[in-house]
Write a structure and sequence with these properties.
Elements (H helix, E strand, L loop, with lengths): L4 E3 L13 H10 L2 E6 L7 H10 L3 E5 L11 H10 L5 E7 L7 H18 L3 E5 L3 H10 L7 E3 L6 H9 L2 E5 L10 H8 L5 E3 L21 H12 L3 H15 L6
Parallel strand pairs: 1-2, 2-3, 3-4, 4-5, 5-6, 6-7, 7-8
The structure holds zinc ion.
Length: about 260
């Protein structure tokens, strides 16, 4: 069955979501959210993600090391990632984020190594990037990541930058930040890019939509993001759901699932 709404980035393996999972999944299903990608952030969390995906067919696992945990990358960790990722639908999340104190050369090394594994396995990549878009673009080019593509998770760059990533075969993921009262760039991105290149996510438990700010985010609230995209584009929420879900299935090559 084709999912109605696809949450392409939610950390269901982390607290406070983990201990409330059955009720959160039920609530999401009622809201029409029936596919979820749970990206890895640290090797210690990978077994939890494996277990979640085995328990629930709606959960798609991805394995990776977040830039804030780049220090955990060793030859052995990369070998485990390669083996485990034969069960994953993508590599990630990985990327660059100068907001963290982790040295940038270390982040770059971890990012490049994960891109090489993605290319080796032919898997798309889930990219975390803040304030380093030019650098991430050049690394993606140098590592030939256009051969696998992927998703720019919770994209916070400009419309022009988004177009550069789209040219490399990456979809642009819209998160709850477009519902925030101070939203500027994400709104421009949601309004101006071809809908064929957009996907949706919550990044739960983070990035809670405006209406619920002050509490942790949950996958059901992806409807707030879909609604806002529909508003700024002047189309129906159903159409936003249908097209963004189809985009996610295409970019992640999940049509056979
Ligand atoms: Zn994340």
């Amino acid at each position: 069955m084709t999912p109605v709404l696809f949450d392409t980035h939610c950390h269901l393996d982390l607290e406070p979501l983990k201990s409330e999972l059955p009720s959160l999944m039920n609530e999401a299903n009622i809201a029409g959210v029936s596919a979820f990608i749970v990206p890895g952030v640290h090797p210690d969390g990978w077994p939890r993600i494996v277990a979640l995906a085995e328990e629930n067919r709606q959960i798609f696992p991805a394995f990776g090391i977040h830039p804030m945990h780049a220090e955990s990358v060793t030859a052995q960790v990369l070998e485990s990632l390669t083996i485990l990722s034969t069960k994953g639908i993508a590599i990630g999340e990985t990327g660059l984020d100068p907001v963290y104190t982790v040295p940038m050369d270390l982040q770059e090394m971890a990012f490049r190594e994960q891109l090489r594994i993605a290319l080796h396995l032919g898997l798309p990549v889930l990219i975390h990037c803040r304030r380093a878009f030019r650098r991430v673009l050049s690394i993606l080019c140098e590592e030939h990541a256009d051969q696998v593509g992927g998703i720019m998770h919770a994209f916070s760059g400009s419309v022009e930058t988004a177009r550069d990533f789209i040219r490399l075969g990456f979809a642009i993921s819209i998160s709850g930040t477009i519902t925030w009262n101070n939203a500027v760039k994400p709104l421009q991105v949601a309004r101006n890019l071809p809908l064929e290149h957009l996907v949706l996510e919550t990044d739960a438990p983070d990035m809670t939509p405006q209406r619920y700010r002050g509490t942790f985010n949950r996958p059901a609230w992806i409807t707030e993001t879909a609604l806002r995209v529909a508003e700024v584009r002047g189309i129906s929420t159903e159409e936003v759901a249908r097209i963004t879900t189809d985009n996610a299935l295409r970019v992640l090559r999940l049509h056979d699932f």
